[in-house]
């Protein structure tokens, strides 16, 4: 991030609200697209949380971390997209100064937590695949809770100094934020006061929260892939390699776009693309993570099927049972046959 002192040509004032410019054109198409993305993202992550909580087979470190990631992704996307959808629906793109700073803090905290959680998950997979004999002893329940708690607490404490520094800035009019949510760089562009300290702290913080976790994740997956290549079974090797490579691609996109936006956006070309890169780590990553990490897994899909059928039976079992006795199977599905799947 380029450390400069911003001086605006307009009037210095305490701006009561900002205007989020978003993507500009085709609001109806954007509304439909973002609505579908939001529904699918929340539904996918909530289903994973439900399965992890309800099924005792998933009370393991890996799925404990996945449940945390899914909860985080649900909060993460809910920090941005509801406001985007409301703005597109009503045409009111304004957001109060306090609302903008709050959105930035929550989003920044969740992004920081996700950086740490992803590295913890990669370390968990490294131990499970590369150190299987020591896995149960090393990754016990107490250690899992400590890693998770440390990730959440660190993620929410780290951006607090930035919040204090931003709250002390004075801003220039017009108060137009060239973004679809309140992010750090567009806010800094509107500041009339000295932002040097804020930019230095943001650069250091982003470096600590992205580069070491990404390197740890990368090293873990390199070790995992090296171990996978020693698997004698060709089918098992291909399946494991496919899973790990898809994980690595998503993680690289997430960390890579964060690094580009917050650490390498000095050039005009990259600065113009920041809004697009933000879509990758702010919208698309929460959308694909449930599919990449969980929904491709046969055990998870089977548990989801049983959970959905079980919920259906608990909600409508009596009606189906009575109709089954009186009129025979409904639409060719016997209640007892349906129940046998659960």
Descriptive overview:
With 342 residues, the chain is mainly alpha-helical. 75% of the residues lie in helices and 4% in strands. The chain has 13 helices and five strands. The strands form two sheets. A three-stranded mixed β-sheet has the order 3-2-5. Strands 1-4 form a two-stranded antiparallel ribbon. Helix 3 (97-130) runs antiparallel to helix 5. It is globular. It starts with 11 loop residues before the first strand and ends with a helix.
Could you tell me how far the N terminus lies from the C terminus, measured between alpha carbons in angstroms? 54 Å
The structure class reads mainly alpha
Radius of gyration: 24 Å
Order of helices and strands: EEHHEHHHHEEHHHHHHH
Largest sheet composition: 3 strands, mixed
In percent, how helical is the residue content? Answer: over 70%
Unreliable runs: 2-12, 330-342
Tell me how many strands there are: 5
Helix tally equals 13
In brief, what are we looking at here?
The protein is built from 13 helices and 5 strands. By secondary structure, the chain is mostly helical.
List the helices and strands and how they pair.
Elements: E1 12-13, E2 17-20, H1 27-54, H2 61-90, E3 94-96, H3 97-130, H4 132-138, H5 141-157, H6 160-167, E4 171-172, E5 176-177, H7 184-189, H8 196-228, H9 234-263, H10 268-272, H11 274-295, H12 298-327, H13 335-339
Parallel strand pairs: 2-5
Antiparallel strand pairs: 1-4, 2-3
Helix pairs in contact: 1-2, 1-11, 1-12, 2-3, 2-11, 3-4, 3-5, 3-6, 3-8, 6-8, 8-9, 9-11
């Amino acid at each position: 991030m380029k450390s400069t002192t911003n001086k605006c040509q307009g009037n210095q004032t305490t701006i009561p609200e900002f205007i989020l410019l978003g993507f500009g054109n085709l609001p109806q198409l954007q509304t439909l697209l973002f609505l579908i993305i939001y529904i699918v993202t929340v539904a996918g992550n909530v289903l994973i949380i439900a399965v992890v909580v309800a099924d005792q087979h998933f009370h393991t470190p890996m799925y404990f971390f996945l449940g945390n990631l899914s909860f985080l992704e649900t909060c993460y996307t809910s920090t941005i997209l509801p406001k985007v959808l409301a703005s597109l629906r009503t045409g009111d793109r304004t957001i109060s100064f306090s609302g903008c700073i709050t959105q930035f803090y929550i989003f920044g905290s969740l992004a920081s937590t996700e950086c740490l959680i992803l590295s913890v998950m990669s370390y968990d997979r490294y131990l499970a695949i590369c150190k299987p004999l020591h896995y149960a002893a090393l990754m016990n329940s107490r250690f899992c809770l400590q890693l998770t708690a440390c990730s959440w607490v660190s993620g929410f404490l780290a951006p607090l100094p930035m919040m204090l520094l931003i709250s002390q800035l004075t801003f220039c009019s017009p108060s137009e934020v060239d973004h679809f949510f309140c992010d750090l760089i567009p806010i800094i562009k509107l500041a009339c006061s000295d932002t040097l300290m804020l930019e230095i702290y943001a650069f250091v913080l982003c470096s600590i929260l992205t580069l070491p976790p990404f390197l740890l994740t990368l090293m873990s997956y390199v070790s995992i892939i090296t171990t996978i290549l020693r698997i004698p079974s060709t089918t098992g090797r291909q399946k494991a390699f496919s899973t790990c490579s898809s994980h690595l691609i998503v993680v690289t996109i997430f960390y890579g776009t964060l690094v580009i936006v917050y650490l390498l956006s000095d050039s005009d070309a990259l600065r113009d693309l920041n809004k697009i890169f933000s879509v990758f780590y702010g919208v698309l990553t929460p959308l694909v993570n449930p599919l990449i990490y969980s929904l491709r897994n046969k055990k998870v899909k089977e548990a989801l099927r049983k959970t959905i059928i079980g919920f259906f039976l608990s909600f409508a079992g009596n009606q189906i049972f009575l109709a089954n006795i009186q009129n025979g199977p409904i639409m060719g599905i016997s209640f007892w046959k349906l129940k046998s799947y659960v």
